[in-house]
Specification:
By secondary structure, the chain is α+β, with helices and mostly antiparallel strands. The protein is built from 12 helices and 22 strands. About 35% of the residues are buried.
Length: about 475
């Protein structure tokens, strides 16, 4: 029997109303931000780009809304189709799957970044953005059908138990690793904190296999790796290269720790320059992008957000702190490419607008929207685009990207030429458009060589800081 129209409408509304906002991917979660956000309309910076301003909230609200009866009629149509599928489809359908597919279709019709997250995907997403999981604490690679330990992570169950670099894991809980993919092996080693897993390793110089029974602990994924470059040998020199892989909750902590380690290694002496590598960084949490930009700025806006509601419109500012004071006189180069998206573009745009850094590489991805992750309780969550963001100079990069100050292209191997470029946000079907704003129509490379000596962009940035290259964009000068 079909549900009455009004009852169906009420049911649909109840399904879609969020119970609470737990976290926000590409949006700051609840908690203290670097500065109290204020409505954007009250604190807009000058607009040197000359781009047309977005319609105000009042102007958008003035658009004629649909008659509620029309909406109920459409919901009635949905109910009719749902009942016909249940009654007449060739095989009895999974009704929960049907409803979730309808929800997914509704959300994905809005833009490429909105969507429904079933419970398992929601749990994976929370683990991804937190940068923490239950596991053993080993960095691994696949080698000859076995899992090779690249390095145990300090102060983790693996390190404490005595697992060493170059150990070969060939059994996990008695099951041979041979035949597993690396992802399958990782999944077996991860699990709830406090649970046990037994791994058996082969070690060079030891005749018999060694068995370890480990209790899983909380493992923090390393968001930042660093090295010193610019010397005669790779890994030596006085220029710090900080590679930030993702804006998880570990991003700013990783930057802070890396800076501390660099100064400790150099007996308190500042590096000659810093290269912040954001290439192929897909973004993450906006609060982390604000903190990372704040590490190099002591004042001014980092990002402006504008949404449909006043709560989604805010300005986030940098504030003076010991970290940016320590780095104030250290030259900064930021590397970007076609895979630098979202939170990466927030950082790059802020440092470029404030003339704090010189951007080197190729045009960024162009994702200028903010997604909130809204919990649906036991039914997972929905990812919903709730705002657009703008750089401190009021620039929107949506479907356009950030153009580097100095464009440097990689030398792409012949077999990859033509396949290393993506158009970015502008190439995604259904992307959000901004009336009157230009969009990217050509691709930007995402290729980064594995060998640093062959990394044209990185090597150019090193020579730029050393003074072996010159460009009017370096060092950046405030106008």
């Amino acid at each position: 029997m079909r549900l009455p129209t009004l009852r169906l409408a009420a049911l649909a509304a109840a399904v879609l109303v969020p119970a609470t906002v737990l976290i926000a991917q590409d949006q700051a979660p609840g908690g203290p931000a670097p500065a109290d956000p204020a409505p954007v309309e009250e604190q807009l910076e000058p607009n040197p780009s000359g781009e047309e301003a977005e319609p105000t909230a009042a102007e958008r609200a003035a658009v004629q809304a649909r008659d509620p009866l029309e909406i109920y009629a459409d919901l009635n149509l949905f109910g009719e189709i749902f009942d016909r599928i249940r009654a007449e489809y060739v095989d009895p359908p999974d009704e929960e799957k049907l409803i979730r597919a309808a929800i997914q279709g509704m959300l994905t019709s809005l833009d490429p970044h909105s969507g429904y997250l079933p419970p398992v995907e929601y749990a994976d997403m929370r683990e991804d953005t937190s940068g923490q999981f239950g596991g053993l604490g080993v960095e691994i690679i696949m080698e000859e059908d076995l899992i090779k330990v690249v390095s145990p992570i300090d102060d983790t169950p693996a390190a404490k138990a005595g697992i060493l670099a170059n150990d070969l894991i060939f059994e996990i809980d008695g099951q041979p690793v041979q035949g597993m993919t690396q992802d399958e092996a990782v999944a077996k080693m991860r699990g709830p904190v406090g649970t046990e897993v037994t791994i058996t390793v082969l070690r060079e110089g030891v005749a018999d296999p060694i068995e370890f029974t480990l209790t899983r602990g909380i493992i923090s994924m390393r968001a930042v790796r660093w090295s010193m470059e610019g010397g005669a040998e790779e890994g030596e020199g006085d220029i710090a290269v900080l590679r930030l892989a993702r804006f998880s909750e570990q991003a700013f902590v990783g930057i802070e720790r890396a800076v501390e380690e660099i100064y400790e290694q150099r007996d308190g002496q500042a590096p000659k320059g810093i290269i912040l590598d954001l290439r192929n960084n897909p973004g993450g949490l906006v609060d982390q992008s604000v903190y990372v930009a704040d590490a190099f700025l002591n004042r001014g806006a980092v990002v402006l957000t504008r949404g449909r509601t006043e709560s989604e419109s805010a300005r986030y500012d940098a504030v003076p702190d010991p970290l940016d004071a320590k780095l104030a006189d250290v030259p900064l180069v930021v590397l970007i490419n076609g895979g630098s998206a979202s939170a990466s573009e927030i950082v790059a745009g802020a440092l470029q607008d404030h003339k704090r850094a010189t951007l080197v590489g190729t045009r960024s991805f162009g994702k200028g929207s903010v997604q909130s992750i809204i919990s649906l309780g036991p039914d997972g969550a929905m990812r919903l685009t709730t705002a657009r963001y703008y750089t401190p100079n009021n620039r929107s990069i949506q479907a356009l990207g950030i153009t580097p100050d100095i464009e440097i292209r990689q030398v792409v191997p012949e077999e990859l030429q033509g396949r290393d470029e993506i158009i970015g946000e502008a190439g995604l079907e259904g992307h959000i458009t901004i009336e009157g704003q230009e969009e990217s129509t050509v691709g930007s490379s995402v290729y980064v060589p594995a060998e640093r000596a062959e990394d044209t962009q990185l090597q150019y940035a090193i020579r730029l800081i050393k003074g072996e290259e010159s460009n009017q964009a370096y060092p950046p000068r405030a106008e």
